[in-house]
Write a structure and sequence with these properties.
This protein is α/β, with parallel strands linked by helices. 35% of the residues lie in helices and 24% in strands. The protein has a single domain (4-254), classed as Metallo-beta-lactamase, Chain A (4-Layer Sandwich). Strand 1 (4-10) and strand 2 form a beta hairpin. The longest helix is centred in the last third of the chain and has 15 residues, at 189-203. The N and C termini lie far apart (43 Å).
């Protein structure tokens, strides 16, 4: 039985996620930007919080960890490589490790690039991956700590997941990402259609996250940097995939 996943809007544009196993009553949280909306979502459903899964060290993803741990006695998991700048960890994780939420196992994926030590959580039975600020809807995170080669390798690991996987990223940045993506591939019909859908959703105040990996592969310029048509559009036909990715990321930083 797949996990029940609840999106919790936090702060101005962050998302946290509750993962609930109906069979056991176990509930985990991916990232903790702010306590109040998370507590409200738990209370509305009568759920207890058993575990907090941290993706990376930035304050808008961990600021409420200690408040929630104190209130619920939740165990805290995060990257061993990032432990020196995370709240104290009960479970220190690395690439290939697993976390258990109720009856379902999630695989830890190293997605360093935005930060070093950034991890994602992939739950195959629920067809869900929690990517925070690595792969985003129509975008990817800025390279604050890693370089282009590191981020390209991370995105390539995520791109290899099953196409039906739902990508639960950390922010509502999709409308701006769509506007930028159209500067890279203005003639991509799938991107044109998706950008229109995003605008319509945001006009109604609806979230654009999660997105399906198949749609990201068809429209997200950061995942498409290795494709001949994207290299041609940039006049970089002979460049490596990493060089093209770096150029796209640099253009987005100036956008």
């Amino acid at each position: 039985m797949p996990l029940e996943i609840v999106t919790v809007p936090c702060l101005s544009d962050n998302y946290a996620y509750l993962l609930h196993d109906p069979a056991t009553g176990t509930t985990a949280l991916v990232d903790a930007p702010a306590a109040a909306p998370i507590e409200a979502a738990l209370s509305a459903r009568g759920w207890r919080l058993d575990m907090i899964l941290i993706t990376h060290h930035h304050g808008d993803h961990i600021d409420a960890v200690e408040t929630l741990r104190a209130a619920h006695g939740a165990r805290v998991a995060g990257a061993a490589a990032d432990a020196h700048r995370l709240p104290p960890l009960d479970l220190a994780l690395a690439e290939g490790d697993s976390v258990q939420v109720g009856a379902e196992l999630g695989r830890v994926i190293d997605v360093s690039g935005h930060t070093l030590g950034h991890i994602a959580y992939y739950f195959a039975d629920s067809a869900a991956v929690f990517t925070a600020d690595s792969l985003m809807a129509l975008g990817c995170g800025r390279l604050f700590e890693g370089d282009a080669a590191t981020m390209w390798a991370s995105l390539s690991r995520l791109a290899a997941l099953p196409r039906e996987t739902w990508v639960f990223s950390g922010h509502e940045y999709t409308a701006a990402n769509a506007r930028f993506a159209l500067t890279i591939e203005p003639d991509n019909p799938a991107l044109q259609a998706r950008a229109a859908d995003v605008d319509a959703s945001r006009a109604e105040g609806l979230p654009t996250v999660p997105s399906q990996l198949a749609d990201e592969l068809a429209t997200n310029p950061f995942l498409r940097a290795g494709l001949p048509e994207v290299k041609s559009a940039l006049g970089m036909e002979q460049a490596s995939d990493v060089e093209v990715f770096a150029e796209i990321r640099a253009r987005k930083d100036r956008f």
